[in-house]
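Before the break, one more example. Copy the sequence into your notebook; we will annotate it together after we see the structure.
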Amino acid sequence: MRPILLGILSAFFFAFTFILNRSMELSGGSWIWSASLRYLFMVPFLLILVMCRRNLKSLLLEMKRRPGVWFLWSFIGFGLFYAPISFAAAYGPGWLVAGTWQMTIISGALLSPFFFETKQTDCGPVKVRGKIPLIGLLMSLVILIGVAMMQIDQANGLSAKVLLWGILPVIVASFAYPLGNRKMMEVCGDRLDAFQRVLGMTLASLPFWLLLSIYGMATVGLPSKGQTFQAFLVALLSGVVATVLFFKATDMVKGNMQKLAAVEATQSFEVLFAVFGELLLLSAPSPSILAWTGMQLVIIGMILHSYVSKRSSNKIPVLKYKSL
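Here is what the structure looks like once it is written out:
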């Protein structure tokens, strides 16, 4: 239950991404700076956290061993995740981006066969290729039906261009984020904690963000003070707090694909938090009855997903990993 609660809490802080990115776009800011500034601002926060825990040296040694692997999966997990998310904010409202982002629930489940689960047998722990959790996938579909209901009446007023550029980049991000996260969990094993892994992936993805910043200076100029401050808030609330909470939750269940899918499904609550945030901060129109019904389905789907995950884990012994 603790990983689920941590996942929901991370979803609350992740929701600030969609709200503030949309706010920056409405005020004339470029998606380029919305994306790159977040990760540039994350570095000092994460450095302080890891240094206070006296874990910086071990992280740097780990990164030195396999720099190419760190760069590749950090670029996929962070670069191909957040740049498309920020780009989509230029073409669609926050609720559309947040709703489409829930594709990560399905994406994470579909990626299971590309990874190995550790199971306890009579001969000791063995690694077996993961299987798509069909029952969990059905619970995820309940959540996605709820998300779709929340957006049907609003999507009718959007142009084809907005739908295309507001949805396709987010679908790419929905596969990139769990893929990069899971691959780095495999690379790090139990040698690094969640704080070290987030800092390592941030440092490894810096070349991409610096190149994007140079491109931004050449094409749109420097960001405004307002956009810089809002990007700072995104870096703190979503980039540091939410990411560390989510990575900690996934670390606690990384040996069980069913539980991992359940933790990733908690990100569906971002839609609820994004709707309330836009109502309070951006004076967005109040959702319709259909949308509120969809929100209830999201919550019901999450409860069912959590129940199925717990029931499944009781049937299949899994090698336990030490939590942080």
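The mean pLDDT is 82. The first strand starts at residue 116 and ends at 121. Try to locate both features in your own notes.
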